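Review form for a predicted model. The reviewer records the input and the model, then writes brief findings.
Reviewer: anonymous (R2)
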Amino acid sequence: MSNPLIEIFEDEKLVEKIKRRLPYLFQLAELESSRAGKTGMEVGSLREKIIVALLIYKFGKENVETEIPITEPEVDVKLFGKPISIKTITGKKLAGVKLIWTVDPHKAKEFHNNYYPYCDILLVQINWHSTGGFYYIPLEVQRKLFDKVGRENYIRLPKPGTNPRGVEITKEALFRVVKDSDTKRIEINWQRKEIESNAYKKWVDLWMED
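Model under review:
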């Protein structure tokens, strides 16, 4: 079987749908997770669900495994049994992508010392009112660069005394894996729409059911 993730980027109709729908769906996620104009941390989980829903839409629910054990911290979903990590970042710079979320400095150090790229990455760069992208970074691309530049140049530990909540892939390493010729990309124009949103409507509607 050919690599199913590559199929997403070669399906012209789906590519056009992603360009058109992803900004709208991510805007809905922001609205649903906002209070008093501030976007909450839960927006990350909603964005992840939107990408998982894309995989289900393309490949069928039976081929997408969403119940992932907590013992697999990097894995967000499995497609045809193959693990995938879903990452989203906001802004024009490719930086700040977490490999693991933790506030425990000992866990961070342990992760740093034992890390080796483990799964394919689907990365969404959100850049409102400008250009961002949707990327598929194959495991082989990550491992090739990791082996070339080494652990210290691939992973960035949190600075002591700060609380950045995780271990990141370095800005330089992320830039290089994204620009690799084997990485697939869809350029996305991130424009907001006028959306009337009521965060409570669906819950009120559910209360109204018998």
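Findings: The CA atoms of residues 115 and 155 lie 9 Å apart.
Further findings: The domain at 4-208 is CATH 3.40.600.30 (ECO RV Endonuclease; Chain A).
Recommendation: see findings above.
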